[in-house]
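Risk register update: the risk that structure generation would not scale has been downgraded. Supporting records follow, first protein first.
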Amino acid sequence: MKGTATARRTLTHPDLPLTAAATVTALALTEILAPGPTVPSDSLLGLLALALGATVPLAFLHTQLLLTAVTVTAATLLTPLTYDRLLVSGLPVLATVLYTVGRRLPGRTTTAFAVPFAGYALAGGAYGTALLVGAGTALTAGHAHRTRAAKARRAAADWAYADTALAHAALGERARIARELHDIVAHHISTISVQAETARYTTPGLPSEGAEKFLAIGDTARLALTEMRRLLGVLREDVPEEAVRARTPQPGLDQLLTLVDEARETSGGAIRLIVRGPLTPLDPGLELTAYRIVQEALTNARRHAHGVAVDVELHYKEDELRLRIRDCGPGGTPEGAAGHGLLGMRERTAMAGGTLHAGPAPAGGFLVTATLPVRSPGA
């Protein structure tokens, strides 16, 4: 493991190309000037120039890859064409440069660099086949490395996206469960506790055994409420907004006038609250559902029809509560209507066993109507 790390640091050192270029240039000069077949003086300078062109550009591999590759390729192919000999010390440079081309440059550029070697081989050059095979192998290896790296990056990005989406979905589900538990179940448990305590003092002629049972019911309800609050704390530990919201009482229809006043101040339009029928206390979960529906409808009106008049109507009937929120805006489906706002209203209405409609009003504007079945708080 330590040796692998050392090798990786060596191969990625910024001075490595310069050092390698100096080494192979010295080898190329030695190969040309070493004792052997005499090179004519008029050809020596040209051969030395091609040798330098096939080796020195390696120093600029990381900064000028395309220019380096073109120079090395041209010098390598011109040497056997001009002097009928192959510069052996330049072959590792050619392989390194072409591998880097395949690894870092697009596929079309990689293919373009293979064309001159193919042409040289078809022309019947003495070293054509060997150069074509070597160049093709280096280009293919570099391109394969590039492809594998791209696939690995895409796979890592896909997994990261999937993990993020899963985490957000889990947080959203936990927040939804916590909200519904607090809005509905916790209210019912509180009602049980209060009614059990009240029954001990308001039931005439209650025997002591009955009083003890009512006391046990109240204690059990309080214990259940304590455990539920602990559970809500666990569910909300990753959702700071929900944790803050849990510290404040859940709103009901008794706070609707305050909501309308706040909406009137922020929107700058005329907002009327119209109530029909006898006011009766409703189930806390149902009141919260109605409040949230009105709140979201006013938010949509402020966002998509700012400053227009809005009517909020509540109609108390014996077996149902009807809501009607209509603005006098341009009408049509507001942008983003398929988002979380209307979706949340529909989910809350469905959980309460009611129906909801949201869309353009017949006489213009946008209309939200909801019908919620009514149950008494002690039902």
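Supporting record for the second protein:
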Amino acid sequence: MSRIFPRIGRRRALQGAAAGFVALGLLLWWLLPLGEEPPSGTITVMTGTPRGVYQDYGRRLRNELDKDMPDLQVRLQTSDGSQENVARVAAGEADFAITAADAVETYELQHGRGADRLRGVARLYDDYVQLIVPRDSAIRSLADLQGKRVAIGPPESGVRLIADRLLGAVGIDAEKDIEPEADGIGTAPGRLQRGEIDAFFWSGGLPTAGVKELANSFAFRFVPIDAAVVAKLHKEGDATRYYRATNMPESAYPAIQNGLSVPTMAVSNLLITRADVDPRLTEWVTRTVIRSRDGIGQHVHSAQLVDLRTAIYTDPLQLHKGARRYYRSVKP
């Protein structure tokens, strides 16, 4: 008997191992979209300005895409921001882009070239408006910007859209009633520190690297955006319906906020593409966006807010069919 049992044990062990390999293969097949090999080729993804969250998130997403699709070359392209990103994707000059929902709606309302081809991949995270002035500045509200030197963002940025609308809501014409500067987060902090401007607008995820870096060497504060102003814009409808009043949490920039939240305005960000982009590729990209949330979120705090339950809400764009296929595959 002692010679028979070891023989049976080895046989069963081999059978068990074989069954395990089969089960593992089936599991891998189930986890991979459609059980297919990863897509290959080259894609261009529009991000944003240096020192902004779009660029940081885009860089880290590319790393995750490289892991999931090693034969896919992902080219990142910097830009002025949301408005440029929407136009580049719509025109077929880029395949994917991060952009704010109000910029997408604005492009559609202006009947921009290729607007009807735009599609959503995922709702990502919210941008928060950050109006920054020196700590000893007399500017306490939007209305106090009258006659001041104010950086309102590059012409094709999402910041420019928001700054123009916020100023207009308090009766300030950005072209006539202030000295407008086209600086974004890449140059505005330095100019504020050198006294070349009195204030600058920024709209980005929390925290933004360019603002954090400024906090290390310069005393500044945030000007609150009154909820009534946001409500006024929201009621206008169209693109401004995506604006909502909120508070920038005290944890965003603790060295500056001293435990206090700041009333401000937020708008959601989307990952977008075009209807003609390969559905299988878009399905894989969508999967990577959702799967990589926690990993990217360790470095880009805003990415922690990417959520499977809200990612499907890409209004004003309908979901790309590849993205829709992914969401349906993981629906409980």
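Strands lie at 41-46, 72-77, 96-100, 118-134, 149-151, 179-181, 199-204, 220-222, 244-248, 262-274. On this basis the risk owner (M.S.) recommends closing the item.
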